Amino acid sequence: MKLLKDSFRVKKKLFFGGRLFYVRCCAHILNLMVKDGIKSVEYIIDKIRDTVNFVNASEARLVRFSEVVQQLQLHTRKLVMDCPTRWNSTYSMLTVALRLREAFFSYNEREVAYVACPTEEEWDKIEKVCDILGFFNEATDIISGTDYPTANLFLSQICTIKKVLDDGAISTDNFIVEMTKKMKAKFDKYWGECNLLMAFGAVMDPRMKFVVIEFAYPKIYHGDESMRNVQHVRCLLYEMYEEYVRSSEAELDGDGGIAGGSSRSTTNSLQSVDHQSNSK
């Protein structure tokens, strides 16, 4: 990474002094937030894992569980085991288990050796957790996409996550408040400061342009901080444009060409157009 930065710096292609060169993985931060949030129900998740292992341990147990599911006329037929290193697979395991919660209770009555059935209160907690994790799962699926550009989608997804956490923080349910508090602490650690690259990616999307910043920032930041960050992004966008103009003019001069027009007058024209667009 250092060698690459030095190479760009020598060629005068390292804009903003390298401030946009290194960005933490958005999907990884979501993963860290979820892990902090589900720590309070880890013991319940272990019960569901133990249940899946218990049922799948023998053909007889699997058949007996399937009979219970069929008698209850449940649409989901098969339990799912998660991969502990992938939180969204844990989310899938929990959502499937929730659809089969009645089967867990019935199976518990028939199978003497089964001792890992969650209580009603524990199921209620898992249901609340899944309601919140659903937003994180959707954001992770969108951000981790490989068939389309993703950097322009980060800001809107992060805005949604912030809204979910803010709503959880003022919930009347103490369990939700405690869970979202841990997740919000991680959010503020990584995204408490204005993320320039995330903002630039959103602005460069022709469907959103700068309007997305003016819409999202009041939801992510509070009061004067929101307006300061909006102006900060606006100023740095023009600064980046200026750097590209100077770089292009230097290349034209080096090739014996004639740089067309002044960068300052071009920027002023852009600012005028931007102002008119905002007025509309």
TrEMBL record:
A GO term, aspect molecular function: DNA binding
Coiled coil regions, renumbered to chain: none
Organism: Dendrobium catenatum
Domain of life: Eukaryota
SUPFAM superfamilies reported in the protein's UniProt record: Ribonuclease H-like (SSF53098)
Stretches assigned to the hAT-like transposase RNase-H fold domain: 144-244
Region annotated Disordered, chain positions: 251-280
A Pfam family the protein falls into: hAT-like_RNase-H
Protein name, per record: AC transposase
Start-end of Polar residues biased regions: 262-280
